[in-house]
Design brief:
Number of helices: 2
Radius of gyration: 16 Å
Mean pLDDT: 86
Helix content: 25-40%
Structural class: mainly alpha
Protein name: LysR substrate binding domain-containing protein
Organism: Nonomuraea fuscirosea
Number of domains: 1
Oligomer: single chain
Length: about 60
């Protein structure tokens, strides 16, 4: 089985039975916050606003 995952996956899901191989020609992956509309509350709104205020993070 092959899965394409962001590079940080190797750090967070380090397992001896998985071999991580980098892709040199992949474009950077974009991430975003997602939640169900019916679960939105003040804490989610505050987190979303903080993310908007910080803007994109370029590593």
């Amino acid at each position: 089985m092959v899965n394409a995952l962001p590079a940080h996956s190797a750090r967070y899901w380090n397992r001896p039975d998985i071999t991580w191989l980098p892709f040199a020609d992949f474009e950077p992956l974009s991430h975003g916050l997602v939640w169900r509309a019916e679960t939105e509350n003040a804490a989610i709104g505050a987190l979303a606003q903080t993310v908007r205020d910080l803007g994109p993070l370029h590593l």
